[in-house]
Amino acid sequence: EPEVTQTPSHQVTQMGQEVILRCVPISNHLYFYWYRQILGQKVEFLVSFYNNEISEKSEIFDDQFSVERPDGSNFTLKIRSTKLEDSAMYFCASKRETSASFFGPGTRLTVL
Amino acid sequence: AQSVTQPDIHITVSEGASLELRCNYSYGATPYLFWYVQSPGQGLQLLLKYFSGDTLVQGIKGFEAEFKRSQSSFNLRKPSVHWSDAAEYFCAVGAQNQAGTALIFGKGTTLSVSS
Predict the structure, then answer these.
(1) Which of A57, A94, B79, B96 could form a disulfide with A61 if both were Cys (CB 3.0 to 4.6 A apart)?
(2) Residue B107: its chain A contacts at CB < 8 A?
(3) Which residues does residue B37 pair with via DSSP β-bridges, in sequence order?
(4) Chain B residues within 8 A of A31 when measuring between CB atoms
(5) Can you say whether residue A8 is alpha, beta or left, with left for phi > 0 and alpha for psi between -120 and 50 degrees?
(6) Which of A99, A19, A45, A4 is nearest to B43 (CA)?
């Protein structure tokens, strides 16, 4: 069964450093998302991506964040200068036109 | 405002007993509704979804949920809980007719199963 994959599973970085979180969505899906979950809190939407551009973003997704689909398979989230409060679990998700979103296993980002 | 409320933060159920997890939503558009389960350290697994049609939907692992439009609810049920069901459960809502719209999640309910 096809699934969304994410790398790395755990990323530790120093405050102010750039990180790139990687995702490989399910191959025939058209919509791609990043969500995050701060420890003990609910899952929050960051950004959606369709047809090679951002279709929607939340207020969390400020100028420090960017997304890219550099090739036909990868979907990346870049945080330009990490802050302590960026520590969270980051989930990638993908979906077809009318389907449920399928989530990856997540990347746990720890900012020291 | 669009929101999902899961009133129960933590529920403990005896193994073999029935389970109901509550979910209420506030959403301007006609909703798609979902339940996801998250085991410790794992991602979100789709349990079931409601798009349209029969308001009682069946999911994986013996779970079902009923959409009640008049109550804006989508409660999750299971007739007999197994120890492996211990996890965190999230209710989520998305917009119909807006294929790319992001999901709004509730805060989750942690289910513990006692023997």
Answers:
(1) A57
(2) 41-42
(3) B45, B89
(4) 99-100
(5) beta
(6) A4
